[in-house]
């Protein structure tokens, strides 16, 4: 059938599908071109397995009336009957195409998704393997509602585009994997800088930011008492109390250091400080609340009095690549980070969960309690510190009274 020649579509894919800039646009344009070739497509789905800490793969689903929808498959669903009872899982295992004329009830009997498609009026179904160059198997499925199903010419036309489609899908999958890994291990903003080419050692930039440095109280004793698995589980739950609030309020987690966490909240292009400080304090308050709930839940596990110290400071940091040879770390350094570290240690001595510097306090809308001026290691001049009004431990007040009181936070 002359109308089913898809060679131009295959050539478009082989050239990188350059008229599309996103994977969903590739699928939408592909389906439009195939329909124009005379193939009566009703539903097309591309399944790409991925490297991600929370999801095992993504599905791009095209239907003419709805366009392209993107879904993700979390790891928790891998053992469900819905997933295991799927033609795509069969295809992963065999790497062989699967054709079912589901207009006939018996052809759809052994897969729930085929029974569902048949109930929606589908008459024919083809699953094709997308073979990536690393040997992994991914999938594309094609379905039609045409009364006669797919003809041999239709099948041949679809098969002609599968290999170039796999190349385009692999390119986008590799880009996404690179971005996901960078987001996971260095943070979104740092990852974007790395992908944009900022990978030379010593390539740094001076930025102003709010600095968050936190630490779990009594971690050394816990590490000595808990089993390794119990300790890792506790740390993961503990960081779950901090990372989401930091990200939700515009922060970037740069580093985990055992039980410690370093994050920054960069100022916007206009340099507006007050909104950033308000967001940081909101994140700290939310983290405090979540850690309190976790502390109540961990008592049954033998973890008593789970607490955290968070130091907040505002200043200039050097943000970029530091390391040796070809092993680099994208992080931030500078006196401002050092002061945050000393304040975090002070928070432990004062029994405070949150402590802020005078530079940070100067831009806070919420009232803060002056804790005094303190001699901190590495700093010549005494440093003023402030705490939250609703947090005043007797131990902390006794210590604070031993130092010269500071002025109230500037307004």
CATH superfamily of the largest domain: Nucleotide cyclase, GGDEF domain
Task: Give the H and E element order.
Answer: HHEEEHHEHEEHHEHHHEEHEEHEHEEH
| Strand content range | 25-35%
Taken together, the total number of domains comes to 2
Main β-sheet description: 8 strands, mixed
Please count the beta strands (DSSP E, at least 2 residues each): 14
Helix content: 25-40%
What is the average of the pLDDT values?
A: 90
> Can you tell me the overall shape?
elongated
Structural class comes to alpha+beta
Cα-based radius of gyration, to the nearest Å: 28 Å
> How would you classify the quaternary structure?
single chain
Q: Supply the CATH architecture of the largest domain.
A: 2-Layer Sandwich
CATH topology of the largest domain: Alpha-Beta Plaits
The residue ranges in which pLDDT falls below 50 over 5 or more consecutive positions are 393-411
Q: Indicate the CATH class of the largest domain.
A: Alpha Beta
What gap, in angstroms, lies between the N and C termini?
Answer: 79 Å
* Count of helical stretches: 14
What does this structure look like?
Helix 1 (7-14) packs parallel to helix 6 (152-185). This protein has 14 helices and 14 strands. Helix content is 39%, strand content 27%. It has two domains: 2-185, Beta-Lactamase, CATH 3.30.450; 188-400, Alpha-Beta Plaits (2-Layer Sandwich). It has helices at 7-14, 23-36, 81-84, 87-94, 112-119, 152-185, 188-195, 219-225, 228-240, 243-248, 274-298, 335-350, 358-361, 394-400, and strands at residues 43-49, 55-63, 67-74, 98-100, 124-131, 137-144, 204-216, 252-257, 260-266, 308-324, 327-333, 354-357, 368-374, 383-388. The chain is elongated and about 85 Å long.
């Amino acid at each position: 059938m002359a109308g089913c020649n898809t060679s131009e579509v295959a050539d478009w894919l082989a050239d990188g599908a350059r008229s599309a800039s996103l994977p969903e646009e590739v699928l939408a344009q592909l389906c439009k071109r195939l329909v124009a070739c005379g193939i009566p497509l009703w539903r097309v789905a591309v399944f790409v397995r991925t490297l991600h800490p929370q999801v095992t793969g993504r599905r791009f689903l095209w239907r003419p009336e709805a366009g392209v929808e993107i879904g993700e498959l979390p790891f928790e669903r891998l053992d469900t009957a819905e997933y295991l009872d799927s033609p795509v899982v069969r295809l992963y295992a065999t790497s062989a195409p699967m054709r079912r004329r589901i207009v006939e009830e018996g052809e759809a009997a052994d897969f729930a998704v085929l029974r569902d498609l048949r109930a929606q009026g589908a008459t024919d179904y083809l699953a094709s393997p997308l073979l990536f160059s690393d040997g992994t198997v991914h999938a594309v499925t094609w379905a039609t509602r045409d009364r006669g199903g797919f003809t041999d010419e239709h099948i041949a036309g679809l098969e002609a585009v599968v290999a170039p489609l796999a190349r385009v899908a692999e390119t986008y999958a590799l880009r996404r994997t690179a971005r996901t890994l960078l987001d996971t291990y260095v943070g979104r903003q740092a990852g974007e800088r790395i992908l944009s080419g900022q990978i030379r050692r010593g390539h740094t930039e001076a930025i102003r930011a709010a600095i968050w440095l936190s630490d779990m109280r009594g971690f050394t004793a816990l590490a000595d008492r808990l089993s390794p698995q119990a300790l890792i589980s506790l740390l993961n739950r503990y960081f779950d109390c901090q990372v989401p609030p930091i990200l939700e309020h515009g922060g970037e987690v740069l580093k985990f250091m055992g039980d410690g966490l370093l994050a920054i909240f960069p100022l916007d292009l206009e340099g507006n400080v007050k909104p950033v400080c308000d967001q940081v304090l909101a994140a700290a308050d939310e983290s405090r609340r979540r850690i309190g709930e976790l502390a109540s839940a961990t008592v049954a596990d033998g973890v008593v009095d789970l607490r955290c110290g968070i130091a907040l400071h505002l200043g200039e940091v050097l943000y970029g690549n530091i390391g040796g040879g070809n092993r680099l770390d994208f992080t931030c350094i500078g006196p401002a980070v050092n002061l945050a570290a000393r304040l975090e240690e002070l928070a432990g001595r004062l029994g405070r969960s949150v402590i802020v510097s005078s530079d940070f306090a100067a831009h806070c809308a919420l009232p803060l309690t002056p804790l005094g001026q303190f001699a901190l290691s590495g700093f010549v001049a005494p440093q003023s510190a402030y705490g939250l009004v609703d947090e005043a431990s007797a131990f902390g007040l006794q210590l604070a009274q031993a130092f010269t009181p500071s002025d109230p936070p500037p307004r």
